[in-house]
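I hope you will forgive my troubling you with a question about protein structure. I set the record out below, with my sincere thanks for your time.
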Amino acid sequence: MTEPNDENLRKLLRMALPPSPETRLERDLWPRMLQRLDQAPAGLSRLDWALAALLPVWFFLFPNAIPGLLYHL
């Protein structure tokens, strides 16, 4: 691009995207992150247990699927 086109593009971008009035955070986010890391991890849900119980049934009904699953692991 030529210089006049670059300057025109800069003007258009400044008009389309005005500077944000608030550039600082209202509070520090790091203490909240540390609290979340200290929390106990979530346990297994009923859906997880149901899927784990269906896996042997699926292997029994479709034994040819076992190599495919092992390949993708």
Helices lie at 3-16, 30-38, 46-61, 65-72. The mean pLDDT is 86.
